[in-house]
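Quick bug: NADP-dependent oxidoreductase domain-containing protein output formatted oddly.
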Amino acid sequence: MSLNISSTVRLASGTRMPQYGFGSPSAQFTYDAVTEAIKTGYRHFDTAQMYGNESEVSRALHDAIASKIVTRSDLWLTTKWNPPQPLSEPGVQTDKVYAELRASYDIFIKDAGLEYIDLMLVHQSRPGPQGRANHWRALVRAKEEGWVHEIGVSNHSEIHLAALPAPTPAVNQIEIHPWMQQRPITSYCKAHNIHLTAFCPLVRIDPLRVADPVVVRICQKHGKEWAQVVLRWSLQKGYSPIPQSKSAARIHSNADLFDFELSPDDMEAMEALEVGDEAAASKAALKEVRGP
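Here's what came back:
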C-alpha cells in the first residue's frame, strides 16, 4: 500500500482531502504546534469552536501562506459547530446556527485571509432528530453559498445519520482505534460513502494499551514506535487519523509512518484487539468527566 504524508482520500463529491491530519492542541500551544506540523508536511488541520483555538489555528495557517511555505489550496481546514448543552428538541433554529457559523467564519477565516472552510462538522448529535435536522440545514446553506466547501458530522451513529435530511454528510468523525473499532457505524459509513475521520486514534496513550504485547511485538518486528504502528493501522484501514500533540519531537515522530507497511497478519492481529463493551464503558466514563 503506497502512502505518504501527502496522500489524499476522495470524498463523495469527488473532492480530495489529505488523508492524514493533525489535531490541534490547547490554545496556548496551538500556534507553535500547527506551525511545526506544517513544516513537517501535515496539510490537514482539525479544530472546533468548542476547543477555543480556531483563532490560533487560522493565524498559523495564514502566516505559513504569507511566508510562502504553503498555498491555501495545499491546506485542509476542518472545524466544528457545537450544539449547546443542555438542549432539548427542536434544538437551535437553523437561522441561529447559520448566524453562528457565519460569525465564526468572519472572525477566524475571512479576517485571516483563508477564504473558505474546507470542512464544517456538527460536533455532537444532540438533542434529537428534529434538532439534528435543523442544525444540518444550516451547514447545507453554508455549503450552497460556497464559503464552506464540504459538510459532515461528528459523534453520529447510524440511526442519527439515516434520519438526516439530504445531502448525505461527507465525513463522520468518531473515536476509532484498534481497541474500539466501532464496526456497525464504520460499516454503515462505508456503505453510504461517508468518510471516517478517527479522533483519539492513539487511545489517549492509555498505559495498558501502550504495553499491549500484540502491538509491542509488531513494533519490534518493524523497528517502529507504538504510536507509529497504531497510526499506520488507522491509515491502512482507510481512515483519517488526526493525532494531537504539542511536542515538536512527537509531531515529527507521528509523521514517520510511510517507510513501512503492516502485513495482513499484522492487521489481523490488531483487528483482534477490539474490546467492545469495555471500550464503550471507558468512553462513557470519560464523558462523565469531560462532557459529551
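Actually, after a second look the formatting is fine. The beta strands are 8-10, 16-18, 21-23, 44-46, 76-81, 117-122, 148-154, 171-175, 195-199, 240-241. Closing.
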